[in-house]
Protein 1
Amino acid sequence: MPWIDACATDDIDEEDLIRFDHEDRTFAIYHSPDGDYFCTDGLCTHEHVHLEDGLVMEYEIECPKHNATFDYRTGEAKRAPACVNLNTYKTKVEGGRVLIEV
């Protein structure tokens, strides 16, 4: 699987996320409180609303539409109405850039 250059490390504040679109897919890239980067699908599994406007709290993303939450490290759906986990993708940092494996 190829590694894709998604953004600069300083594009994402700690405990925040950015949207990244690649080909016909959309992703969310997170900057955790401990300085690590994570990537999930960018759309909530409940009604396919983009997570980019959601609230990041520690290691969870809250969907802006119905307040479903996910652990962005594992993709696990933590609060209804979402009951399907998000897909997650490996990330790495090289030269101040966040790369994702898709």
Protein 2
Amino acid sequence: MALFTLLTVLWVLSSGNVFVVSLAFADLVVAFYPYPLVLYAIFHDGWSLGDTQCKVSGFLMGLSVIGSIFNITGIAVNRYCYICHSLTYDKLYSFRNTLMFVGLIWVLTVVAIVPNFFVGSLRYDPRVYSCTFAQTASSSYTIAVVVVHFLVPIAVVTFCYLRIWVLVIQVRRKVKSEVRPRLKPSDLRNFITMFVVFVLFAICWAPLNLIGLAVAIDPPSVGPSIPEWLFVVSYFMAYFNSCLNAIIYGLLNRNFRKEYKRIIMSVWAPRRFHTETSRAGTEGLKSKPSPGLNNNE
């Protein structure tokens, strides 16, 4: 029953929104398990939960991080195909294919994390009170992580968004070809939202990855010379990125702002919330909405 409900919800969502839901899940993974353990370690001034809990926490941290960047890459490719190759988009991103693409993203995410158990790079770091990826565990593996998990996805996303920006500029100057449809305002707003998500991800994660790359190239000399405060700031700035996406959606998307308001009202003024909900339901029955309306417009 739960699987049927999930598939029904995904069927209602467009293919682009399915990727956004997948990204939201990646952001929430760290909130359910690793972050509470980090707070526990901070309050107890150290890790006292055992090696198994440490490995699980580090695994879920990696699942969230790599899942986020892979989903952001998937969103960029999806938007690129939707805007720049609109004639083949519906066939390429059918409901079945979209679920397969999202599944592939998570399979690649798990595959990318598994080598950590063989290298022994999931360790407790007292500087950040977290069980996380140890950049000094293996120089070659750290370089591979930075390249495969950060630089390559950033390059793919940059290429996709640059091509989209070129098309947006052409459309605004009315120099588009006849086979490319005019961009709708909702398409442009959605693109800008995901572009901001990508830019903030790159800004938040670049310092930590650059530190890891520098340490991996020359561990004996570079490792001890990096100030502890710089590593701590870059680490928490990177993981703070998981909290930013919800804020971005709220600032740039009208529907998210509306739902945030509904949630706040349901918590602080439940009677008023139920009254307005009942009133909206009654009005909705009286007036049938037009099937051509788009929630994003």
Protein 3
Amino acid sequence: MGGLPLENGSSALALSGSQQKRVQVRENLSSAGTESKPKKKICCACPDTKKLRDECIVRHGEDACAKWIDAHRQCLRAEGFNV
């Protein structure tokens, strides 16, 4: 069987040093992006709890709205944001 040389008898193709680095960087980027990266922008996530939180703060002040603020934070965390 002709073709590309094998590395240490395994089925992996032999790559030059720069090619190996590029593959490793791509793998690191793709695995880092799939861990828990949010799929939406934070401004667009959880519109219902955001609206309730904002209305409460405007009408009653931040101190009176801890319940809505916490509910919005929990929703954002469920969407993958660190807040």
Protein 4
Amino acid sequence: MMTETPGTRHEHSATPLRADCVADTAGGLTFDIVGTGGTDPAHLVLRRRDGEETALPLAPAESGRLRAALPSGVDLPEGRWDAYARFGDDEPRRLSPGVSDLRSLVDRAPGDTADRIAVRIPYTAKDGTLAVRSWLRAPHAEAGDLRIGEDELGVSGRVYGTGLAPEAYAEVREGGGPRSVLCADVTVREAEFGFTVPYAPLGPGIWDLWLRPAGAEGPKVRIARLLDDVADKKPVFRYPRAAVRAEHGEVEAWPYYTVDNDLSVTVSATG
């Protein structure tokens, strides 16, 4: 009968691995997993759904753990990344979520001099495994409080990575390609902006909200809510519907966050 000896690669596949995550205010993440006692080089592997991979070395830490760090300065392109542990030449093993300390992400406020926003939020995927949602935006328009009116939406926010010129304005763009675009005047106070979206001119469909911080000649910045600890806003942030007699007939309109946490408005005919 053949037997296995401790420390061989088969031991790595014997016990499910759980990873604890700690987020810092700069946008970095630290991953801690329980070590298996093997001597093979170990890496934490983040694999995006399109197959792109990022490997981070796992080093011994306290209490027999292995630790990998993903600093905010290391690019992690936007997307959903599945987390694995790889030991030596073994096949990577999916990680299960342990304890996530995301307190530093609540009401996170990057410095005004930040030229980009890096956001990484660990979460539990639908199959129960550990994944990381990543955003990397430069410049970025962060949505703040939304004011829900009877026939309009008030939006406030803050811009990062660029300034706000006196000619700044917002765009309400019909989704699905180069379709209707409506403009809204923006109030500016240093890096903060505000504007109102009236529902009446909007036809049925999805309308995406954009900021033009330098006017028509400058960048076009998607308005999103990223700076907190909620990886998927859509099922969490729900807003009341407004019944409006619009130019296109009777409609219901309401704001929502997309699967990418971008801010949009849905308009639906009611007759």
